[in-house]
């Protein structure tokens, strides 16, 4: 299946470079380019993109607000957002994850890594580097967050164990190995946790784990 990619960045040269890279992959196609967040939201709706590569700092509407609008639109429920930033210590990354982004990358990422990231996020997984994520949360996740429909207290002991491992960056296979489960069982636990916590994806689970204190910065 071809991944339909929308590129959102206010720098034309950056967009064109990304477009050439994405089009070089046999399993991807660029369906649109946006120079602002508002344009990105509009094109996500009209072009039915599978994934938006979203810059944070853009005119008219920034990448965080654009991500929030996309995530909140029921008609765009299948659209994933991969946020790009110049620095991995950008304080807006946490807000982007809260808004519904499924992961982030820095702009100096190698071309092959960007393509792999697009595939990972488009497949419904999250892309989080545990080290930078922990540093960001430690520094910026102190502010009050929006009310949630549920928290770790509604989870079973096993589900809390699984959630803590998700927050540490483990995939389903690694979680299965760590807890002596089958990969299918680990996947089932993750799916149930997302349902109970009303989380969009694994990136949202990371935020819940840190905000609740289940996982603390420095423990990853």
TrEMBL record:
<dbReference type="InterPro" id="IPR058245">
    <property type="entry name" value="NreC/VraR/RcsB-like_REC"/>
</dbReference>
<dbReference type="Pfam" id="PF00196">
    <property type="entry name" value="GerE"/>
</dbReference>
<dbReference type="Pfam" id="PF00072">
    <property type="entry name" value="Response_reg"/>
</dbReference>
<keyword id="KW-0804">Transcription</keyword>
<dbReference type="GO" id="GO:0000160">
    <property type="term" value="P:phosphorelay signal transduction system"/>
</dbReference>
<feature type="domain" description="Response regulatory">
    <location>
        <begin position="4"/>
        <end position="122"/>
    </location>
</feature>
<keyword id="KW-0597">Phosphoprotein</keyword>
<dbReference type="InterPro" id="IPR039420">
    <property type="entry name" value="WalR-like"/>
</dbReference>
<feature type="modified residue" description="4-aspartylphosphate">
    <location>
        <position position="55"/>
    </location>
</feature>
<dbReference type="InterPro" id="IPR016032">
    <property type="entry name" value="Sig_transdc_resp-reg_C-effctor"/>
</dbReference>
<dbReference type="InterPro" id="IPR011006">
    <property type="entry name" value="CheY-like_superfamily"/>
</dbReference>
<keyword id="KW-0805">Transcription regulation</keyword>
<dbReference type="InterPro" id="IPR000792">
    <property type="entry name" value="Tscrpt_reg_LuxR_C"/>
</dbReference>
<protein>
    <submittedName>
        <fullName>Response regulator protein VraR</fullName>
    </submittedName>
</protein>
<feature type="domain" description="HTH luxR-type">
    <location>
        <begin position="148"/>
        <end position="213"/>
    </location>
</feature>
<dbReference type="InterPro" id="IPR001789">
    <property type="entry name" value="Sig_transdc_resp-reg_receiver"/>
</dbReference>
<keyword id="KW-0238">DNA-binding</keyword>
<dbReference type="GO" id="GO:0006355">
    <property type="term" value="P:regulation of DNA-templated transcription"/>
</dbReference>
<dbReference type="GO" id="GO:0003677">
    <property type="term" value="F:DNA binding"/>
</dbReference>
């Amino acid at each position: 299946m071809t991944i339909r990619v929308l590129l959102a960045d206010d720098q034309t040269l950056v967009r064109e470079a990304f477009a050439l890279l994405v089009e070089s992959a046999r399993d991807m196609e660029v369906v649109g380019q946006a120079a602002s967040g508002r344009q990105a939201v509009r094109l996500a709706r009209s072009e039915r993109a599978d994934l938006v590569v979203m810059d944070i700092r853009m005119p008219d509407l920034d990448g965080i607000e654009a991500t929030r609008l996309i995530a909140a639109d029921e008609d765009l429920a299948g659209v994933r957002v991969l946020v790009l930033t110049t620095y991995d210590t950008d304080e807006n990354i946490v807000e982007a994850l809260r808004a519904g982004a499924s992961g982030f990358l820095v702009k100096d990422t190698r071309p092959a890594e960007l393509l792999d990231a697009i595939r990972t996020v488009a497949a419904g997984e999250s892309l989080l580097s545990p080290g930078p994520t922990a540093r960001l949360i430690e520094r910026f996740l102190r502010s009050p967050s929006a009310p949630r429909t549920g928290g770790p207290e509604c989870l079973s002991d096993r589900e809390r164990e699984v959630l803590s491992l998700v927050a540490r960056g483990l995939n389903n296979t690694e979680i299965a190995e760590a807890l002596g489960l089958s990969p299918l069982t680990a996947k089932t636990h993750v799916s149930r946790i997302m349902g109970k916590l009303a989380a969009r994806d694994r990136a949202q689970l990371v935020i819940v784990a840190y905000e609740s204190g289940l996982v603390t910065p420095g423990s990853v």
